[in-house]
Amino acid sequence: MIPVMQQIFEKIEQADSIMIFRHRRIDGDCVGASKGMKGLISLTWPEKKVYLIDDEKSEYLSFMGPDDDEVSDDVYSHSLGIVIDVGNHERISNPKYALCPFLIKIDHHIPKDTYGHINWVEEHRSSACEMIAAFYAAFQDKLIIDEKTAACIYTGMVTDSGRFQYEGVNGDTMRLAGLMLDKGVDTEKLYAHLYLRSFDQLKFKACIYENMQCTENGVAWIHVTKDMQQRFRLDFETASTAISSLSDIKGMLCWLAFIDTDTEEIRVRLRSRFAAINTVAEKYHGGGHAGASGATVWSMEEMQSLIRDADEHIRLYKETHEGWL
Ligand code: AMP
Predict the structure, then answer these.
(1) Does one domain contain both 217 and 148?
(2) pLDDT tens string 129-186
(3) pLDDT tens across 166-178, in order?
(4) Cβ neighbours of residue 21 closer than 8 Å, sequence gap 6 or more
């Protein structure tokens, strides 16, 4: 066990009140990891107060249970803060994290910002949930877990690793996932929550395949316009799933989804195989991982510029590497 895990355990043990934070634009990993950590603490120390407060809601992820109601600022200023799955402090979804006098950062993104008083960052981990599972594994003689908590942790391990297929998945990932499954996770139900699609969503998928475009050097992209979102009655979260439909085109080492929002902002989701794409995301107000990043653009010109940059990036990669598919 690495010393920072022991420090985190001791900090949690000493705290009476704990607040857990995660990133904006919630996903399976940050929700699973925050609820997983909350579950471990609440089950082990029922006398401690543990809060998970976030304005952002996700219907898709609601099966993991609700968050807590807002509390007074005074509670924040007397609590230990644990921020999970957030690379840089600007992305912490609840800005009141800043009221906490002591912060612990637990994260697997490429480190940009050591905002924690204790920072446990392992960028090779396939998910933040894998880190929470590792935390449980390290202290399993002291920590209590139940099926619901294990299911939250397992959920993030599955979603952030693309069902255990992305870079970063190794033997340790599978052993920790196995440890979670041993706690009785109902995988049939879980996969139904994660992967069943409505009729409209499948029609939307067909529309993506109809409208997707590819650049000369191997970047596939789709613009999910407001019009498309209305036509298929998509909420923003469902519209954002467009990215996964572009993941398996031979020769396309990078794929992008541009999703219109209610404002001028256009959300960008970037994914890649073999080549790292985070540097392109960083140029457009974003960041993330080598193979999965996010960014924002504000106009069609900026969208085209990002596509050109990604195309050039992939051209260079192909020119200098062999063995990609
Ligand atoms: P997404 O496409 O939103 O699922 O993002 C992919 C990965 O990049 C996730 O791990 C996000 O936490 C991260 N990410 C997304 N947007 C940003 C951003 N603006 N800055 C830094 N990291 C981001």
Answers:
(1) no
(2) 999 999 999 999 999 999 999 999 999 999 999 999 998 999 999 999 999 999 999 9
(3) 989 999 999 999 9
(4) 34, 54, 81, 82, 83, 84, 86, 92, 93, 94, 97
- Output the CA 74–ligand 1 centroid distance in Å: 31
pLDDT digits 0-9 by tens, 55-90: 999 999 999 999 999 999 999 999 999 999 999 999
Residue bearing the CA closest to ligand 1, atom 7 = 293
| The last residue of a domain, from among 162, 194, 226 | 194
- For helices 128-138 and 171-181, angle between their N-to-C axes, nearest 10 degrees: 70
Cβ of residue 156 lying under 6 Å from some atom of ligand 1: no
Instruction: Residue 186: give the domain boundaries.
Output: 3-194
- The first and second tokens of residue 264, run together, are 């001028």
Ligand 1 contact via 25 beta carbon (within 6 Å) = yes
Both tokens assigned to 257 = 């989804």
Q: What span, in angstroms and rounded, lies between the C-alpha atoms of 105 and 111?
A: 11
| Residue 81 in contact with ligand 1 by CB distance below 6 A | no
Whole-prediction pTM value?
0.94
Q: Is the CB of 108 inside a 6 Å radius of any atom of ligand 1?
A: no
Q: Are residues 138 and 238 in the same domain?
A: no
Ligand 1 atom with minimal separation from the 268 CA: 2
